[in-house]
Amino acid sequence: MIRAPRSKSRFSLRDTLMSYGFLAPALILLTLFTFYPLAYGSYLGFTEYGGARFGQGLPPKWIGLENFRTLLADPLFLRSLVNSVKYLIVVPVLQLASLAVAVLVNKNLPGMAFFRAAYYVPVVTSISLAAVMWDWVYNKDGTLNWVLGAAHLLSRSSMFGWLNNEYSAFWAVMLVTFWRGFGYYMVLYLAGLQGIPQELEEAAVLDGASSWKRFWSITVPMMKPTILLCSLLSTIAALRVLEEVLVLTNGGPLNSTYTALMYVYSKAFQGFNFDYGLASAAGLVVAAVALLLSAVNFRLFRDSSGDSV
Amino acid sequence: MKHAARLLTLGFSLALGTAAAQSPVEVQLWTWYLSPKFDNYIKDTISAFEKANPGITVKWFDKQDSMVQDFLSSVNMGSAPDVVNLNIDETSKAAQNGFLRNVDALTPAATLKSTFYPQTLANFTIGGKVYAYPWYGSLNEGVLLYNPDLLSKAGVKPPRDMNELLNMVKTVKDKTGAYAWVPALKDPGGASFLGYFFSDGLPIYDASGKAAFNSPAHVALLQKYIDLFKAGYFPEDALRKEAFQLATELYPQNKVAMIVGGPQALNRIKDTNPSLYAKTVVTSAPLGKAKVQTGTSMGMVIPAASKHPAEAAKLAAFFTNNANQMAFAKIVPIVPTTAAAQNDPYFKKASSDPIAKATSLVGASGRYINPGFKAPGNSDDLYKNFSDNIEAALLGKKTAQAALNDSVAYWNANMKK
């Protein structure tokens, strides 16, 4: 066997410099806007910083784990964390629904372009507009009660405002999250579906495979990378839910919709009693939960050969 | 030789003076939710100020929901504004956290006292120092607006005090289907129910400064509201939306008979239901047992990080002087905070137009602007706790007594002095 002579170096200095030159703008931006804030935010989580200390220009003061002790002793934070984790229920429902609809709108039937666009409209609708619309739906005299009343599922006397009830508000807000996210994931799945080689499907059809069999044996395995991506994105998005909660319920009633990110936001940015140290510590806890759940996602979508997709 | 030295000194002084005149100071002004509706007024006032103060130019920004965050960021970035429009609560919080200069160090206390009502100055006094030039204000019980058709259908007359109003809530709803009134049960950014305690002469703090709003009288008042809320006589949404927002949404739909508040509610009614606006009757607002008004005002503060505090003080004093507050009152029904406004003939004009009538009823009432209680240190946490407890009581999760006891205990354990 003849071996090719090994060159002393695979890349010349010029190539190396050029590679780093191309990478530099992105690396600088990432350092400035991602790595530095991440590192500084993590550091702040272990400090006392904010309020009078910030106003008087004093630097952060290292206090170790004190902020985490405060968080563990704060029932509102624990409640908000439980709510955020509970909010993850939306993830599998959202993924299954958007994958199913993506499969349906992937067919070359007349009018499909309209449906693809229609499902995407909520993604680009501003949250303030969406809030007004959903307020009409969930109001005591709103559309939802009217529909349930017309179907004889709810009597006039038992109607209530869906956002004013501690048992329904959480699910009502979650439905808005579902409505807003559905089109986004559908488009990602649609892109994934269109990347599946047509000949695989055709070969399966020739072999006599049913459409259900083709879906499970070809579509799902080929879509695993997209499923993992969408699942990760929606897990993180569910843990970061803030806008719809703020505008629809402001965390109420009885803090039943108060999420962990709302806690972070209120501590860091609401009023002048802001507490950057405590907010950063709460942010770190949320990030730790997100990392843990991301690992679970990777584990779940590992393919049969044992390699992660 | 002496003469030559004098000439030299004079020459230097003139040269320095010219140099100073050639480099005008730029002062940054931040207002809050005033653009675009009041752009003309703000720009005209800035032009008049610049004309009267040739060395100073003003750069104006109107901030909206991100005001506080932007303020904090600008301080952090070393580019703090020079004059900022904040309300009483935010001024108090900002001053407690060391963000502001006390303005009585920039403008003689005697000038402040002769310009503004004592109570409006007191509203912005924290730890014995004044932290803002009081600007335009509003009264929570400024006027009573009512739909005469709904009141006549219910067979009731406009209430003269809060007791009468609470007593007619059932009748109005039962006979007309419309809510009589939307009370301020819960305010996301404050603790509005404390205002009802103050209106009834019930204290918020005791003599030593500790929270003390859990006496039997406090409980009895809260219980009245709880009973009415549970029986469906107040809208459910009153727990989720601000009373002003909800009332001005429902009144034009004939779903609320009365609004207690400032004349500003009329602007919205005029836009959404002009025929109901024309019918709307404006009269004096019902007051609580203490016969006092509550209200709030905006102020103009000078951040500690301002690089031009002297010029900033001039601008803030100019914007808040009587002439400029009166000019503002003529385009929108605000309540001026200057003592001279009470004698202005503008507020004595008779008119049948609801906004004009409301303006003449409340315009000269700046002396009554009083939130009723000072924002406590750590107020964001304390207000949230108070609102959560009031909500728990209204939704039947706690008794009125337990809710107020819990809140008082929390306040006293967490209030920063």
From TrEMBL, chain A:
Q: Which Pfam families match?
A: BPD_transp_1
Q: Which residues form the signal peptide?
A: none
Q: Which PROSITE patterns match?
A: ABC_TM1
Q: Which domain of life is it from?
A: Bacteria
Principal localisation:
membrane
Membrane protein topology class:
Multi-pass membrane protein
Per the record, what is one GO cellular component?
Answer: plasma membrane
Q: Domain named ABC transmembrane type-1: which ranges?
A: 81-297
- Tell me one GO biological process term: transmembrane transport
User: Which key words are in the record?
Assistant: Cell membrane, Membrane, Transmembrane, Transmembrane helix, Transport
Q: Which SUPFAM superfamilies match?
A: MalF N-terminal region-like, MetI-like
Q: Where in the cell is it found?
A: Cell membrane
Q: Which sequence ranges are marked TM in the entry?
A: 20-39, 85-105, 117-137, 169-191, 276-296
The text of the family note is:
Belongs to the binding-protein-dependent transport system permease family.
**Name used for this protein in its record:** Lactose ABC transporter permease
Organism of provenance: Deinococcus irradiatisoli
Q: Write the lineage as a comma-separated list.
A: Bacteria, Thermotogati, Deinococcota, Deinococci, Deinococcales
Automatic annotation (TrEMBL), chain B:
Among InterPro entries, the record links this protein to:
SBP (IPR006059)
Organism for this UniProt entry: Deinococcus irradiatisoli
From the broadest rank down, the organism's phylogenetic lineage runs:
Bacteria, Thermotogati, Deinococcota, Deinococci, Deinococcales
UniProt-recorded name of the protein: Sugar ABC transporter substrate-binding protein
GO CC terms in record: ATP-binding cassette (ABC) transporter complex, substrate-binding subunit-containing
Q: Which GO terms of type biological process are on file?
A: maltodextrin transmembrane transport; maltose transport
As given in the record, the signal peptide range reads 1-21
Record family assignment: Belongs to the bacterial solute-binding protein 1 family.
* One of the record's GO molecular function terms: maltose binding
Q: Is the keyword Cytoplasm assigned to this protein?
A: no
Q: Which UniProt keywords apply?
A: Signal, Transport
